[in-house]
Amino acid sequence: MKTLATFNGQIQPLEHLKISANDRAFYFADAVYEVVRIYSGKLFLFAEHLSRLGRSLASLGIKCDLSLVEKDIMENVNANKIFDGYVYVQVSRGEAPRAHQIPKNLKPNVTIYSVEFVSDPFAPFRASGIKASLHPDWRWKRRDIKSTNLLANCIARDRAESENCQEAILYEEDDFAITECSSNNVFIVSSNTLRTPPVSNRILNGITRQCVLAIAKSLNIEAVEENFTVSELKFADEVLITGSFAEVLGVVSVAGCTIGDGSVGPVTRMISESFQDLKKASH
Ligand code: PDD
Questions:
Q1: What is the atom index within ligand 1 of the atom nearest the CA of 88?
Q2: What is the pTM (predicted TM-score) of this model?
Q3: φ/ψ (deg, to 5) at 23
Q4: Active-site positions?
Q5: CA 188, CA 239: separation in Å to the nearest integer?
Q6: Which of 17, 45, 69, 192 falls between 20 and 30 A from 224, CA-CA?
């Protein structure tokens, strides 16, 4: 079946969708987005994703009726008959001739489509863990906004892949503080404590990140939201990444340094199992 897209409420095949070159997403990445996983036909942590979408829109002053977006997302997922997959939603500020001034009160363009997973893209790494590279964080200073401006993320991921790694862990060039990854958040475990950078403009506050912090609490794993540096990362007992696609994945090497004994560590495994239980309970 062809993937169906919903553009401003109208359903049509994704391959036929035409969006104006005057869409400000095209010129300026003046748009925000969300990716929501679907497990057994149900949208996972949907309210949390919608609320973050609302926050991203408000941060950029894009006015959009979220209850309509919510309805369109559900309709699109039903129309595509998704059982196990994801939905992508992008809201741009709207269309206007190219100019740096931000026009007021444009009608936003809302693009939604949903896709069934043929197979889990991370399946080969769930048990063995991934390799990560290190890359300077070249992005802008409002990474808390889930903006479609992802070029620096793509460059970092591309470099990671050319180094035979699956993800790039990013660090600030001035103080070597770790921020997050090209499309995931990052945690370390050292001295039995789980650590992840605190919520700030330096990271996207991942929905999976928040979920993992809640899981840690329920498992009585000590967890702190504190910055750590590149060297603390390399000497950690465990490193893990979280994201809507990755879910919870162990990292067994960083920039060629083996983490722990080179296998997915016990804390990561406990958290990952709890995450799988939570997924099942949400069906
Ligand atoms: N990426 N950090 C960045 C920069 C991200 O792009 C993402 C998600 C995350 C994790 O957020 P969440 O747990 O809410 O998925 C962290 C999505 C999946 C993407 O761009 O495809």
A1: 21
A2: 0.98
A3: -65, 130
A4: 146
A5: 4
A6: 45
